[in-house]
Amino acid sequence: MWKRRASIGMAALGLFLSSTFGSLPSVLSPFHQLENRDVRAYVKHNLGGIIKIHEDNLRITFDEEPEVRWGQPRDLSASAYPEQGIALASFDPETDTIFLSAPLLRNPDSTLINLLLRKFIPRVYKQRSPTDGILSHELGHYFVDQEAESMGEGNWPPDFENYTLEEVYGIQLVSEGIACHFEKLFNFGAIAPYFDSHWPTNIDDWTNDDIYNGGFFLVQPIIAQYGLQGIRHLILNPPNECEIYDLPAYRTNMLEQLENQICFEEVCIQG
Ligand SMILES: [Zn+2]
After folding, report:
1. Whole-prediction pTM value?
2. What distance in angstroms lies between residue 227's CA and the mean position of ligand 1's atoms?
3. Domain residues for 210?
């Protein structure tokens, strides 16, 4: 239902890479307007439950529910990045606000195919809604920002003024990788397979596929093994200007550092 753009414009990196984009559908019909009201009610009713599922899955705690606003962030609606299309969803770390675009999201129960699948194969048909995955992605950004602020790192991702392109990609790999980890809990098809042999050797060759799918496969083993401790270590240590050129080695180093942290803590506790 939704697609991300294939290339990244440097000018648009700040907001674009923390957003989920699609192109305008051709379905702004009365039926779709009805559906808009449904999806707003759906999100309002299910946000707390989706947060609870993520809390249980990763053994984490959201300090509070984020503010959810319907529409486009100001920077986008002001056509600052007209070439990027319209955002399905985005997160603004400055105001801790998730923006959702009602015309582009769907209530899971509102399509005929969903109704039929749920009725006839409820045990097999486990997918809830594309909206759950997209909302989860932005909740991932919201949680990372919460943790960064609690560790004194400020808003995350930061604004990228005076950052090199390598530094921007390093932070965005972690930011989008963690967000995709949240998203994948509800949408297995969201993340395409990515292999270490795909990493671009030239900084000008990076695409959204590298940032989103590559980012997920970069951070996934770290989060799977170390959970919240892994997420915090990633926020504090995104790939630097050198590490961006050897990301398999970066992942190995991160896992070793976390292993040593735990060994150190165990020795300290035992001592
Ligand atoms: Zn994102």
Report:
1. 0.80
2. 19
3. 10-270
